[in-house]
Design brief:
The chain is an alpha/beta fold. It has two domains: 69 residues, 2,3-Dihydroxybiphenyl 1,2-Dioxygenase, domain 1 (Roll); 87 residues, 2,3-Dihydroxybiphenyl 1,2-Dioxygenase, domain 1, CATH 3.10.180. The protein is 34% helix and 28% strand. The chain has five helices and eight strands; from the N terminus they run βαββββαβββααα. The protein has a four-stranded mixed β-sheet, with helices on one face. A four-stranded mixed β-sheet has the order 5-8-7-6. Helix 3 crosses helix 4 and helix 4 packs antiparallel against helix 5. The protein starts with 5 loop residues before the first strand and ends with a helix.
Length: 157
Amino acid sequence: MPKNTICIWYDKDAEAAANFYASVFPDTKVGAIHRSPSDNPGNKEGDVLVVDFTVCGIPCIGLNGGTIFKQTEAFSFQIATDDQEETDRYWNAIVSNGGQESECGWCKDKWGVSWQITPRTLTEAMAAGGAEAKRAFDAMMKMRKIDVAKIDAARRG
């Protein structure tokens, strides 16, 4: 087991979520599935309790904990993309599978987990600072899914 693992709370669908992520993102896979050894507030004995998985190489566990806690934007996966095609592929996969769009490159999957689908050109513009960062940031603030061509145009001024 890795020293640090992200634990994500699901009502009951951690296995389905992990399988979906593995179908969408590179270097993502589902590992061990652990069943509840006894009844507890979120599960019955034998139900899937914990799912080991990775998302883009980051170790995670999905915990089927019931409806006690809800997802918020306070946690999100940020996925760096190289071009519009990759941005579209990830964004569309999440949103078209019962998810929802948000602002500035953010969306939520159908389990409520937030994702930032962020083209590298936007991150590079922010790192450049100054007027270039301001133009790219101002352009991004008007978007839902990030439009790479518009960010690139803003970077150039």
